[in-house]
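Annotated sample (chain length 342).
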Amino acid sequence: MAATWGELFPPPPSFTEANIPSQAGRVFLITGGTGGIGYEAAKILYHLNGRVYITSRSAASAKKAIASIQASSPHPSQTINRTSGSLEYLVLNMDDLSTIKRTAEEFLSRETRLDVLIHNIGIMVAEDPKQTTAQGYHQQLGVNGFATFLLNRLLTPLLLKTASLPSTPTFSVRVIFVSSSAHRAPPTPDGVDWDDINLTKSRKTGLKGEVERYCQSKAMNVMQAHEFARRYHASHGIVSLSLHPGANSTDLQKNVPAWLNFIFGILRKHPRYGGLTELFAALAEIKGEEGNMLEDGGRNGGYVLPWGNWGEGHKEIFEALKSRMTGEKLWKLCEDAVKEFM
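Output written by the structure step:
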C-alpha cells in the first residue's frame, strides 16, 4: 500500500485538546467508537461537552466503552471545563444493509440535529476472506463502501436541516470519511473497477487480494467525500472531507499477518493521534472561500493528513473526480446497490 512521506512521518499534532473550544450544544455521531481512534475521538468530544453517539454491533460493548470514557479524565492539555458532555450508543451492524435504516431511524427519533458525522468504521483485512456480507459483497466493499454510503444517505436530511438553522455557523456541519493512504493504490485509472466492483474476477488471492479490496474501498471513501461536498457545499454550507488517520495501534490490523504488523509496528502511535486527526477534519475552522471545492481553491471535498494537516490525496483520483465526474458515477453505483434498503 502506498503512502507519502507526510503520511508515514507526520509532524507532531498542533490541533489538540488545548485549542479545541467547548462543543456544548452540538451532536456528534461516530460509527464504531468502542475502541481505537473512534473511541479516542468520542472521549475527547465528551470531555469537551459534546453530545456524542457511538455505535457497536452489541449493546454490551457500547455500554462498556461508555463506562470507560465516563470514568476517564480529560487530557492534561485541555483548558475547557467539562460540564455537560453526554454519551449515547446505537446498535449498528454494517455488514447487513437491511439493518442500517433501523439504526438511522432510531437516531432520528432521538435527535433534532446532527452537527458532525464521522464514518469511522472500517475493515482492512477480513478474518475470513471468503465470508461475505449479508448481500454477498466482500466485506471491505460492503462495509467500507456501501454501508457507509447508505448510512450517510439516511442521515443527510438531518445534516442539511442542522446546517440551515440560523444559529449554525456556515461550514461547521461536517461529514468525515475515514479513508487511508491505501487509497493511493486502488484499481486504475479511476480508483474503482467499474466492471467488477466486487472484484470477483481479480487474479489476486490471499493477502494481495485483501489489500486490493481495501485499497478500492478507501478510494471509494475519498470519492464519496468529494461528491457529497460537491452536491451540498454551495446550497447548504456543509463540509465533507476524507482523511488518512495515520498509523495507529488499533484492532484494525488484527487480521494482518504478524510479520507485517512487526514491520509497521514501529510507525504506530497511540490511537489518540488518529482521534485528533478525525477531530481536525471535524472541527478545524473553515471560513469564506475555504469552504469552496478543492478544485476551486478551497478545502471542501479535500483530504486531511495525520495528525491534523491539510494535504493532497492521490493525484489520479482527484483528477478523475474533476475531469470525468467519477464521484457522480460512484454515487449512482452506490445508490443502485442500496436503493432497496432506503
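Annotation: The mean pLDDT is 93.
Annotation: The beta strands are 27-30, 51-56, 86-91, 116-119, 174-178, 239-243, 303-305, 309-311.
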